[in-house]
Write a structure and sequence with these properties.
- The protein has a single domain (3-187), classed as Alpha-Beta Complex (endopeptidase fold (from Nostoc punctiforme)), CATH 3.90.1720.
- It is built from 4 helices and 7 strands.
- The chain has helices at residues 3-26, 48-63, 70-78, 89-93, and strands at residues 97-100, 108-111, 121-130, 133-139, 146-154, 163-166, 176-187.
- The chain has a 6-stranded antiparallel beta barrel.
- It is globular, with a radius of gyration of 17 Å.
Length: 194
């Protein structure tokens, strides 16, 4: 290996470590009271080992010049083992994982495919602030980046989380996006067929 290639490799490795440490510093889990849902028996916070793993995996991919996508990040962070494009997760979860219209910490919020989100998008709920506001962790909302604790507001007329706006710029909510619902890390039996 030439001295220049060696320096570039060392620089990439150093940048990956700095990125990992920087993102991990922002990823302090929030705590709260226990509630049923994505992580039964856990406090209302993301599981720290899952959060560290998801952030680490994304940083490693980025350091290797690979794209960081929302689907593998959501799968790593939530523990929900579904495949396919983001927009297919709602239907893919039917009869396999519990689904619903209520945000819960650790649940995967499925953005429907449509204008601006050709194949949909996935995000994991990191905090429920109020009945109409949550924070999410997700990847590739901003190209090839992980975003933590991003504010999302329910703007649906029926208060059912079917339409949301995401705060991509501090203090400004972006356009409206359709939401299919939330997939919870709770397997269902075939008899339940949720």
């Amino acid at each position: 290996m030439t001295p220049i290639k060696t320096r570039i490799s060392a620089l990439r490795a150093a940048l990956a470590v700095m990125l990992l440490l920087g993102v991990a510093a922002c990823a302090s889990p929030q705590t709260g009271s226990s509630a049923p849902g994505a992580y039964a028996g856990q406090s209302m916070s993301l599981l720290p080992h899952r959060q560290e793993m998801a952030i680490s995996q994304a940083a490693a991919k980025r350091a290797q010049g690979q794209r960081v996508w929302c689907v593998p990040f959501a799968r790593d962070l939530s523990g929900i083992d579904l495949r396919g494009n983001a927009g297919t997760w709602w239907n893919a979860a039917h009869g396999v994982y519990a689904r619903g219209k209520e945000p819960q910490v650790g649940a995967v919020m499925v953005f429907s495919a449509g204008r601006g989100l050709r194949v949909g998008h996935l995000a994991v709920v990191s905090e429920v602030v109020t009945g109409r506001e949550i924070r999410i962790d997700h990847a590739n909302w901003e190209r090839n980046r992980v975003t933590l604790r991003q504010r999302v507001v329910d703007v649906s007329p029926r208060n059912d989380w079917s339409m949301v706006r995401v705060e991509s710029v501090p203090g400004t909510l972006g356009r409206t996006y359709a939401i299919s619902g939330f997939v919870y890390n709770q397997r269902v039996s075939r008899a339940q067929g949720v």
